[in-house]
Amino acid sequence: MGDEGVAVAPAQFGGEVFGDGDGAFPDYEAVSGMRDDPDMLVMSDGARVVDRRPTKPKISAAIANLQRGDIVIVERVGDEGSGDWYVQVLMREDNTFQLEYRDGAPAEHYQTRTVSREKVVAAVLGWVKGEPGWKVSFMWNNIASCFEASDGS
Fold this sequence. Notes:
The chain is of the alpha+beta class. It is built from 2 helices and 9 strands; from the N terminus they run ββββαββββαβ. The chain has helices spanning about 55-65, 115-130, and strands spanning about 10-15, 15-20, 40-45, 50, 70-75, 85-90, 95-105, 110-115, 140.
C-alpha cells in the first residue's frame, strides 16, 4: 500500500478544527505486539502524520510530551478507507486532557475530560490493543450533534 491512499483530515474537538491535514509520511515501523489484525495505525498531530504503525513507547511519549493546545490522534486505517475509527487527545489550556473517540460514524463520537495523563495513556493504548474495557475509567458524552451538517431548517 502506497502513501497516496492515506490522508489525515483536520482534527475536530467538539466541532472546533485543529490542523490542516497536510504532511508527508515517515518510514514504516513495526507495531510490536499492539494489534494482530491487518488494520494499520497512523499517529498524527492534527496537521501531519508523525508515525505510521506507532509503537507503544511512541504513543506513550507523544501523550507524555503534550503541551497546552497540542493534539495526538491515533487512527485505525483499514483497506476500506480512513477517518472513522480513531482516538484523540487534546491538552487544553486549563491543563486538562480532552479525550475523544469515534466508532465508525459521526453518530458514535464521544468525549470526556480528565486531569490524569496516566489514565489517558492507558485508555489510548487500550484502544490500540482492542481491549474491551479501555473506556470504563471515564464518563463519556456523545457529541455527535457537534458534527451534524446543517440542513438549512
